[in-house]
Specification:
Bound molecules: 6-deoxy-beta-L-fructofuranose, manganese (II) ion
Keywords: Isomerase, Manganese, Metal-binding
CATH architecture: Alpha-Beta Barrel
Protein name: L-rhamnose catabolism isomerase
Strand order of the largest sheet: 4-5-7-9-10-11
InterPro entries: L-rhamnose_isomerase, L_rhamnose_iso, Xyl_isomerase-like_sf, Xyl_isomerase-like_TIM-brl
Number of helices: 15
Organism: Rhizobium setariae
Pfam families: AP_endonuc_2
Largest sheet: 6 strands, parallel
Order of helices and strands: HHEHEHEEHEEHEEHEHEHEHHHHHH
């Protein structure tokens, strides 16, 4: 079933269809002159998908304040419907990534069935041991999987195992573990002992992974811990994946690095050593800002995809990263932001696909730095929008998803059905 009437989408598409055909034909000629088959790029873009985070469809806010919008999802079933709108219009987001226990999943079978009805699959499960939940027995104030107290660690382990069990019913194939464990003062925690406890705990979780599952550890430089963080960088992350075994991989959240860090090179390293598990896409200016993907530095996103496409086209061994968005929306309609972000990810992919890799390789070998750089820039400068739009149109999506969404009146409709939520303090639930 579809959330928005196909008639609305058709009517919106009709307005710009002829212009799209002309733009697509023109771009096809431009690319043909460069030896690129536009149909090949379009088919790859059409087959590409990025998962939507269930927590993204609600207004996130910051830790200082949250200003809810209209029609905020009340529960996971509402969230799924919003995700279905994003997929219907963009055709780029076939799966949803859940966060437990932000998503209350009491009716697991019903949830799976609803996903099937809406044509949505379930991507990686996300556990949450970075905050205390009501009625929680032991606090995570001093850490979860690395807590000095064995009973607290066990509680965090059990929660992760529960996430795997939930995911098994839903058809998920991965567990993403991000912990906020760390310290706020020099001397507060013993670096090596904390990491050792974390590794032991992760090994216990790893034992419960089904054979066809993967576990992703997600690093983050700081926050909520402001002096030291147990899993703070890709080096620690790589060590974790190595220690755990072949089903363990590193997850790269674009917002979790120091400013100016060369993320695309980290991506390359992890690919080379077969430990790249996946991404949380977002953008940032200062830290873990959770801004819309591609909104600040689309060139960096392109450079990350340049590495991914290089690996894809050279059939790099063991290369199968999961792609997810992870962002927080403060001033926009989350559905519009997520649609735009999904399209930004597809755009970076398409631009990376049209890089002349043979020429690039020649310039690299020959030491022609300027032409190597120019080869990348040429692809990045190319407006691939007609390819993305055509891929959407051919799959019954919208040529312009935001216009179609606005024309549909979906937000107004759900605002009438879902009770208004008042503003509150920070939080991303
Ligand atoms: C931590 C993080 C992690 C969480 C999500 C809500 O900053 O990136 O992925 O699960 O935010
Ligand atoms: Mn993340
Ligand atoms: Mn984050």
């Amino acid at each position: 079933m579809t959330m928005i009437s196909n008639g609305v989408i058709d009517a919106e598409n009709e307005k710009v269809h002829a212009a799209l055909e002309a733009d697509y034909d023109h771009l096809g000629e431009v690319l043909a002159r460069r030896g690129v088959d536009i149909g090949w790029v379009k088919d790859k873009v059409a087959a590409y998908g990025v998962a939507v985070p269930s927590w993204g469809v609600g207004t996130g806010g910051t830790r200082f304040a949250r200003f809810p919008g209209q029609g905020e999802p009340r529960h996971i079933f509402d969230k799924l419907e919003d995700c279905a709108v994003i997929q219907q219009l963009t055709r780029a987001t076939p799966t949803v990534s859940l966060h437990i226990p932000w998503d209350k999943v009491d009716d697991l079978k019903g949830l799976k069935q609803r996903g099937d009805e809406l044509g949505l699959g379930f991507d990686a499960m996300n556990s949450n041991t970075f905050q205390d939940q009501p009625q929680q027995r032991l606090s995570y104030k001093y850490g979860s999987l690395s807590n000095a107290n064995g009973a607290t660690r066990q509680q965090a382990i059990d929660h992760n195992i529960e996430c795997i069990e939930i995911g098994k019913v839903l058809g998920s194939k991965a567990l993403t573990v991000w912990i906020g464990d760390g310290s706020n003062f020099p001397g507060q925690s013993h670096f090596a002992r904390s990491f050792e406890r974390y590794l032991e705990a992760m090994k216990s979780i790893y034992k419960h992974l089904p054979d066809d599952w993967r576990i992703f550890s997600e690093h983050k430089m700081y926050e909520p811990a402001f002096y030291s963080t147990v899993v703070q960088d890709w080096g620690s992350n790589y060590l974790i994946a190595q220690e755990l075994g072949p089903k363990a991989f590193c997850l790269v959240d674009l917002g979790h690095h120091a400013p100016n860090v060369n993320i695309e090179m980290i991506v390359s390293r992890l690919i080379q050593f077969k430990k790249l598990g996946g991404f949380h896409f977002n953008d940032s200016k200062y830290g873990d800002d959770d801004l819309d993907t591609g909104s600040i530095d689309p060139y960096r996103l392109f450079l990350v995809f340049n590495e991914l496409v290089d690996a894809e086209l050279s059939h790099a061994d063991g290369f199968d990263p999961a792609h997810m968005l992870d962002q927080s929306h403060n001033v926009t309609d989350p559905i519009e932001s997520l649609m735009t972000s999904a399209m930004e990810v597809s755009r970076a992919y398409a631009q990376a696909l049209i890089v002349d890799r043979e020429a690039l390789g020649g310039y690299q070998e020959g030491g022609d730095a300027l032409m190597a750089y120019e080869t990348l820039k040429k692809a990045f400068r190319t407006d691939v929008e007609p390819i993305l739009a055509m891929a959407r149109l051919e799959q019954e999506g919208a040529i312009n998803p935001v216009s179609a969404y606005r024309a549909s009146g979906y937000r107004q409709k759900i605002a009438g059905e879902r009770p208004a939520v008042t503003g509150s303090g920070g939080g991303i639930v």
